[in-house]
Each structure stands twice: as C-alpha cells, then as structure tokens.
Amino acid sequence: MSDDHGHDEHGHNHGHDDHGHDDHGHDHDGDHHHHHDAESVAAAVVTVSSSRSTDEDPAGDYIADAFEEAGHEVVVRELIPDDYDSVQGTVDRLTRRKDTDVVVTTGGTGVTPDDVTPEAVRGLLAKRLPGFGELFRRRSVEEVGTRTIGSRATAGVVSATPVFCLPGSENAVRLGVDEIILPEVGHLVGLAGRGLDDESGDEAADDETASDADASSEDSS
User: Under DSSP, is residue 51 helix (H, G, I), strand (E, B) or coil?
Assistant: First the structure.
C-alpha cells in the first residue's frame, strides 16, 4: 500500500519515472496487470434514499448493470433510508460478508440535512481513499462546473473491503462507475484483501497442528 509520497508501509520506494516504470524497471502502463488484481469481483449495491423505490432506482440499476456488463457479479441490492444508523449498519454488515468484495452506495452525499452517507461510512473506514473523491470532483467539473464543490463522494476500505459512496444522480453514477471505479476495482480488491487467504490458511494449519497434538497426547495417556 502506498502513502502520498510513493512509499509502501515498509518504507520501500515505488515512485514511477516519466516512462511509466517503477524503480525496478517494471512496466506500469495502463495495460499492465498485477498478479494480485481480481479479474472478477462480487459487488453489493446500496441505494440510499427515502423517496426512491426498488421499481424506480435508475442510479442503482446503472451500477448493477455496469458491473455485470464488465464481467463482475452483483450479489446484493439494497434500498435503505437516508438515516445515519441505517447507512452505517448496512455498510458494516455488507463488508463483513464472505461473498462480497466491494460495496458501492448511491445517494446521500450532498449537503442537505439528510445527506449523511459520508459521515456514516467514515466512522467505519480503516483506510481512506481521498484520491477517489478528488478525481471524481475533477472529472465532474466538465459536466456541472463549479457545482461540483457540493459533491462529497467518498471512498475507503472497511473490513478489507473497498467501499465507494457516489451521489444519487444517474449522471454522477455513470461518471464514477465508468471512469473511476470499474477501471480500478479489481486492483483495489486485490490489494485490500492481500494476505487474508494466507492468514486463513495459517489459522487452519495451526488448528490442525493443535488437533494433532491433542490426539498424540490422548494416545500417550
């Protein structure tokens, strides 16, 4: 994982030169795929709205359709009210599911009193991804101009699961999903979950060793 200065958590430098290579000479252009990228992810889509219904949810529908068309799977669709506890509880629950790799919410990122999605999600974040909101607002300027200052699109990692919080408009969702999330979701899922399989394997091995030791002890007695 890299900090703002191009170093990972162990202090190793991974800065890129002007030709898209890292310090070890490896190519990191747009066509390069890292070994830890997830080719297909399982997504949970959450619409945050007190006025929408499951029959009328264009933003949520777009997210789900875009993920499936890109070869990913949508395992959960939920519609919840604009309520702090509902948003936080739902995101917390979904990120703990074994069958969910990424959570994408739509709605509740504006500045009205009931727009509480960023606040609710930030309370759960183990790591923040400020670059997502920065890039989203930068791209949004082309469509909405200075009104982009009212957008609080947010992203981060909860329980080793990337979470993206998008506005409720379909145009904003299209921009965020097509131009930012889908190009990077496999890479982020791979990074966020890296090492978890090894840890699970180590725990299973420890349990097996403990069971063998108990069996040997019983045989000796």
Answer: coil
Amino acid making up residue 189: V
- Neighbouring residues of 17: CB distance < 8 A, sequence distance ≥ 6: 23
Integer Cα distance of 39 and 141 in angstroms: 31
C-alpha–C-alpha distance, residues 221 and 217, integer Å = 6
**Of 179, 159, 191, 155, the residue nearest 38 (C-alpha):** 191
Please write the tens of the pLDDT for every residue from 152-166: 999 999 999 999 999
Candidates 201, 214, 130; CA nearest to 165 is 130
Model-level pTM? Answer: 0.74
Rounded to an integer, what distance in angstroms lies between the CA atom of residue 126 and that of residue 195? 16
CA–CA distance, 184 with 187 (Å, rounded to integer): 5
Distance CA(108)–CA(82), nearest Å, equals: 7
How many angstroms separate the CA atoms of 11 and 16, rounded?
15
Query: Which residue reads 């960023």 in tokens?
Result: 118
Give the position of tokens 């069971």. Answer: 211
CA–CA distance, 88 with 1 (Å, rounded to integer)? 25
Question: Residue 192 is encoded by which pair of tokens?
Answer: 């966020």
What CA–CA distance (Å, rounded) separates 143 from 147? Answer: 9
Longest pairwise C-alpha distance within the chain: 79
Torsion, Cα of 123, 138, 150, 62 (10° steps): -80
Query: What number is the average pLDDT over the span 64-79?
Result: 98
pLDDT in tens, 97-114: 999 999 999 999 999 999
